[in-house]
Each structure stands twice: as structure tokens, then as C-alpha cells.
Amino acid sequence: MNNRRNWLKQIGLGTIGLGFCQFETFANPTKEFILPDFDDSPVLLRSNENPYGPSPLARAAMTKTVNTSNRYGWKLWPELITLIAKKNNVADNNITLGAGSTEILDLVLQYTASKKGNFIMAETTFDYWTAPYEKLRLKKIMVPLTKDKKHDLPAMLKAIDSETKMIYICNPNNPTGTICNREELVSFINEASKKAIVFVDEAYIDFTKEQSLSDLVIENKNIIITKTFSKMYGLAGARVGYAIAHSSTIDEINTLKSTPNMSVSVVSTAAAMASLNDEDFIQKVYVTNQEVKKYTIDQLIQLNLTCIPSYSNFVYFSLENYKKDYFKQLEDHNIQGTRIYEENGKWTRITIGTLKDMQRFIAALK
Ligand SMILES: Cc1ncc(COP(=O)(O)O)c(C=O)c1O
């Protein structure tokens, strides 16, 4: 009981009387669920990290594995691959590991460059990883989002030309938090993959009840899916991600590395394996994120700010009606947000932290 009270207090629910009844249903919440927080520490709402830390099982596994860090992970890497493959209903040879999904994104860009030509992505989407594209002699084609900030799949299909080697779809999309309708996405993939690789980034899929597209890779060599342990699993600093693709496509991607899978440390590998077994933690993070996201959106709407419905752990909203200097307000309150993504409409993104984080964020805006 005491543990439960501590935990509610730490996530901010102990101090206010909101009707967050979902929290009551959590089985045995422990204070290990979240890391200690101090009132004057910066509120980190910039990088869509999980504010509750790695899962308790992952923390225990990491501590234990520190002692065997003198050894390479020859035994552990295949074990993690098997667990990931099972989770995604594919075979072990459909998976390759990376130090975060960023490593896989880098590899896919190199793989695309090896074919020469152009690649297509939405404007506005997650694009940091494409920074080296000019050095790699690739051309980038940007397709505007729809008015409701979704991928414009018909326009992306039209944008494909004879030089197109890859089309990137971030689903759910960062920074807008929107998601593609599965049927529309599958039919887009069926068409687009006849001409180029369709690369689907599912970094935030665990924050939805949507099914991954992993099943499509069994038959189709022209789909690459990436996933990460950085978001839902709370392992951003541990750096574990992976690609799911047809076995021959995985082989191709692996040719770009001297030793596939080796960039993930044994400590991080053990953490990822333990996290996959910590259903209780995943469920808590899912429900908590939903509740705190709802609180945040409700509050932003009360401030007369337009928000895009979000299928992720962040919210995209417009500062057009905001009268104060948003970035100064954040700075004055020691809160780290992110930039303006679209000048037209002054759209920015905020990560969903703990309830306490979001209360500080909303108070800072008022
Ligand atoms: C859409 C998307 N893909 C991939 C990544 C990379 O994450 P990581 O390298 O930590 O797996 C991020 C990180 O923010 C992201 O937002």
C-alpha cells in the first residue's frame, strides 16, 4: 500500500484529485517503476523518451550483466534475436540488431545509396537520419502532409519515378503523432514496393493498439521495418533497435557491416531481453501515457491551442494562438521542449512526460 502511495505520488497523482481510475488497476506498482525526481531538475520533454526509466526487470538484468561485460555477446545476441522474432511473428533470419534504430536507419540510407537515385519522405517527418544523403549522392523528394498532418499516401505514390529507390513512412509519424490507416498503408505498400523499398519506421507503434506490419516481410523483399527499445521500453540510453525484413534483404543490409549485431553491448542486450518479458511494465507505461496525454491535450485545448490527435508519446500542437514567448516560458521554467517544425501554423511538439512533468509544463505556459 505504501509502495502504491509512493508510486502515485511520484507520478504526480498522489497530489491531485483527478479521476485517473486506470491507475488503480495497476498490479503491484512499485516505487522502482520510476526514477527519483527532484522539483528543480530540468523537465526533459524534447526527445520522446520514456520518463519512467527502464523496466525493473531490465534494471536487474543490466546490473547482473555488468559482471560479464568482459565477454562479447556471441551467445546473447542470437537469444535476443529469437525473442524479437517471436514477438514479431517472424523467423530469426528476418531480424538484424542495431545500436538503437538509428544505426538501422543509417544502414538503410547506405543501402539505398548503393542503388543510387532518390528517396521519398513526408515533409514533415523524422528526418535527422537523412543528413548524410547528399554526401551519399542521393536526392531527397519531400511530399507535404495532408491538412490533418497525415502521410499523403496517394501523393507519395505519384512522386515515385524511375530513380526512386526508397520511400520512408514513419508510422506513427514523428513529430505529428498521426497514423496511417492500415488498409490504406498495405495497399500503398503493395503498389510502391513494386518499384522501390518501402521503409516503415515503427518506433512508436507500441503506444498504439495497431498491429505491426512485420507479417508483410515474409513474402515481400521490398519492405524494411524498424523498431526500437528506446521509447516504450525506456532504453534510449542503452541503444537497442532492430530491423525486420525478408531474410535476403536482411542479408543485404548485413553486408554493410563487418560484424552484424555486434554494436549492441551485452548489458543492453540483457536489458532488451528482460524488457520483452516485462509485460506489467509495458502495460503500465501504455496506460499512464494514454492518461497523461489526455490530461496534456485537454489543458492545451483549454489554452485555446490546436492539437493533433496523437498515437504516440508526444503531442503536436500549434502556437499560433499563444500570446507569450513559448520558448522563453520553457527556458524560465527549466523545461526542454523542441523546435518549430512548420512555420506556417507555428507547429511544435512536446513529449509526454510524467503527470508532474506535464503539470509543470502547463503551469509554465499559463
Ligand atoms: C521515428 C523515430 N525513429 C527512430 C528514432 C531513433 O531512435 P533510436 O535510435 O533511439 O532507436 C527516433 C528517435 O527519436 C524516432 O523518433
What descriptors fit this protein?
366 residues; alpha/beta; Aspartate Aminotransferase, domain 1; Aspartate Aminotransferase, domain 2; seven-stranded mixed beta sheet; three-stranded antiparallel beta sheet; 12 strands; globular; disordered N terminus; binds pyridoxal-5'-phosphate
CATH C-level of the largest domain:
Alpha Beta
What is the approximate shape?
A: globular
CATH-assigned fold name of the largest domain: Aspartate Aminotransferase, domain 2
Structural domain tally = 2
Succession of helices and strands: HEHHEHEEHEHEEEHHHEHEEEH
**What oligomeric state do these chains adopt?**
single chain
Query: Which stretches are poorly predicted, pLDDT < 50 over at least 5 residues?
Result: 1-32
Bound molecules: pyridoxal-5'-phosphate
The description of the largest β-sheet is:
7 strands, mixed
Q: What proportion strand?
A: 15-25%
The secondary-structure class comes to alpha/beta
Task: Figure out the total of helices.
Answer: 11
Q: Identify the CATH architecture of the largest domain.
A: 3-Layer(aba) Sandwich
The CATH superfamily name of the largest domain is Type I PLP-dependent aspartate aminotransferase-like (Major domain)
Radius of gyration: 21 Å
Q: Which strand order spans the largest sheet, edge to edge or round the barrel?
A: 2-8-7-6-5-3-4
Q: For the residues shown, what is the average pLDDT?
A: 91
Total strands? 12
